[in-house]
Structures are given as C-alpha cells and as structure tokens.
Design goal:
Layout: H1 2-11, H2 15-51, H3 54-60, H4 65-96, H5 104-135, H6 139-154, H7 161-164, H8 168-174, H9 185-190, H10 197-221
Helix pairs in contact: 1-4, 2-4, 2-5, 2-6, 4-5, 4-10, 5-6, 5-10, 8-10
C-alpha cells in the first residue's frame, strides 16, 4: 500500500481522485487487512506457544491461566494497532504533500478515526480468532473460512438484510466512517436497513464479550499436552 500511495502522490493529478484516495484505500484495507491480520496473529496467541513448547513453561508459573491468555491478547492488540496506526499516518503524511488535497486538517482528524476503526476490527476479529485458537487444531484454516467465506458471502450486495445481520462485518461497517466514500458503497454491504450505531455497539460488545468469556473458559479447562 505504501508503494501505491507513493505512485499515486506523484502521478495522479485529478482533484477528485486525490481527495478520495485515503478514504477508498482505507476502506479496502479495513475490509481485507484487518480481518486477515486478526486471523493470523490472533490465532497465534495460543498455537505459537504450543508449537514452541512455551505453554508448558507458562503454565508452571504462579499465574492464573486466564491472565496468561489475556496478557498475550493485549500484546497482540497493542502490536497490531500500533502497526496499522503508524502505517495509516504515514500514508496520510505522504498524501498531505499533494498540492490538490483539500481539507487537510479534516483529513488528519479522519486518520485518527480510521485508526479507531482498525483497532475495533482487530479487537473483535482477534477475539474470535483467539477462540478458534483455543478450541480447534487448525485455527487459521477455520478463521480464513469464517472471514473470507461467511463474512464475504453475507456482504454481497444481493444478500438480504436479514442474512447480513448475522455477520460481524455488518455491525463493524456500520461504525466505519463514510467520509468521501461513493454514495451507496456502504449501502451495498449493509443493506437497505442498516442498524443504528448504538445497536451496532451493543451487538459487537455482547458478541465480543461472549467470545472472550468462552475462550477463557475453554483455555482454563483444557489440558494442553506437549
């Protein structure tokens, strides 16, 4: 994405294209990279420790198993959010030097809102990836089937709103900023009757808390033999 941004900065001159570039590339990155990174890094919270024989050592320490899991999850969230946030700020900084960019201060503010959206997506998808990691032997495979199977199918424009409402992306996209996005772009994903923002927050909170509780419960009760 950095190379695309550099080429765009020096070779594109149209005012409309310049001012919609950050929103569009963020929208694409949010829909693809967030879920992909969450699956790979979130699934590795437990599986890497099992493969590296480190879980046995951690379980011998005088720490609750739930604390081990939550600490590793917190490290995943902080690490990925910092990477995404700095990357987006770098892209925005490059575009700030374009002479045809308008509303520069607003674009800077939107970059922080986008970082918040990235953080929320990484947290939610990462929680479900962690649940898959403690429950299944091949969590990455199950995670990819979920985010690139079910989540993508429900986001198709011709799917009914009722089907869309039983996916995580439906509620996450409800909270995504629609700054300078083409009209109807989010409508294709959300359907004709998108939920209110407060409903999306409640649903996301309940689903994430439930997945977190279930992951901790399974991790505490399961014996990981090396």
């Amino acid at each position: 994405m950095l190379s695309i941004t550099v080429l765009f900065r020096f070779y594109v001159r149209g005012s409309t294209a310049v001012n919609t570039f950050i929103p569009y590339i963020t929208f694409i990155g949010y829909g693809f990279l967030t879920s992909l990174c969450a699956v790979f890094y979130g699934s590795a919270i437990v599986s890497d420790e099992i493969d590296g024989r480190g879980l046995t050592y951690l379980q011998m320490r005088p720490l609750p198993k739930s604390m081990i899991l939550l600490t590793k999850f917190a490290a995943y969230v902080v690490g990925t959010v910092v990477i995404f946030g700095l990357s987006h700020l770098l892209l925005m900084g490059i575009m700030q030097t374009h002479p045809k960019l308008k509303e520069r201060l607003l674009v800077i503010g939107m970059s922080f809102r986008y970082t918040g959206s990235f953080a929320l997506g990484l947290f939610v998808y990462g929680t479900f990836a962690m649940l898959l990691s403690v429950r299944f032997k091949f969590p990455v495979l199950w995670g990819l089937l979920f985010v690139f199977g079910w989540e993508r199918i429900t986001a198709l424009p011709f799917m009914s709103t009722g089907i869309k409402r039983i996916s995580l992306s439906h509620y996450l996209m409800t909270l995504f900023p629609d700054f300078k996005l083409r009209g109807g772009m989010l409508d294709d994903l959300l359907g004709n009757e998108p939920p209110e923002w407060w409903i999306a927050i409640i649903v996301i909170s309940l689903l994430t808390a439930g997945a977190m509780w279930l992951a901790i419960r399974i991790f505490k009760d399961r014996e990981y033999l090396m």
